[in-house]
Amino acid sequence: DLAASRRREIVHDEKEQLKVIPRGTTWATSEDVYARLSWRGASGLPVGPLAVFLQAGLDGRRQFYRWRLNEGEDPLRVRDLVTASAAAEIEWAGPRLTLIPGWRWQRSEDDFPPEPTFGPDDDPAAELHIAEDVSPSLALHWEARPQRLSFFAHAARTVRQPTWIELFGLRGGVTGNRELLPETL
To answer: Quick check: 25 and 15 in contact, CB under 8 A?
Structure first.
């Protein structure tokens, strides 16, 4: 499986309907470039009474965000994400009982230059935030009555990156925190 996408979102508020303070024309641009390559074994590898299907994947994403009010412009913010994943589907007793252990590694790199400052002493240094996380998972699927009654169970440690709004807020409404770290559960 091979996929690629590019998404661009633009907010242009020349009628000043967003009611930001100070007043003026707002431009916000967000871009998201994404690519994925994944593979799943076409046939099971027989291991005694078991059949094993292997799968692996690699994702890459680059996100950009810029906000401008009148002639003032925030610095360009960039986030890079790389994810590698692997799993095995282990079928026992035909396809009636399937165990799926999985593993996912994610590396995020946030390059967020300092905000524009208003005083001579307000010059925060830019920091490159790098985080690496591993997310193991385990799933179980049991077909109690084939094609009529199935039970699923899933356990995982997951990671979620903060959104642009959580990091930087919305002018005139939401205050962001650029020091947020990825959440784990």
So the answer is: no
Residue with tokens 């994610």: 106
Confidence of residue 182 (pLDDT cuts 50, 70, 90): confident
pTM score = 0.73
Is the separation of the CB atoms in 64 and 75 below 8 Å? Answer: no
Distance CA 6, CA 119 (A): 38
How does 81-114 read in b/e, with b if 16+ C-beta sit within 10 Å?
bebebebbbbbeeeeeebebebebebebebebee
Q: Find the helix or strand (DSSP H, E) in which 40 lies.
A: strand 26-40
Report residue 96: phi and psi, to 5°.
-75, -30
Place of tokens 């230059």: 113
Distance from C-alpha of 36 to C-alpha of 83, rounded to nearest angstrom = 9
Helices marked H in the chain: 164-168
Please check whether residue 38 is in contact with residue 1, taking contact to mean a CB–CB distance below 8 angstroms. yes
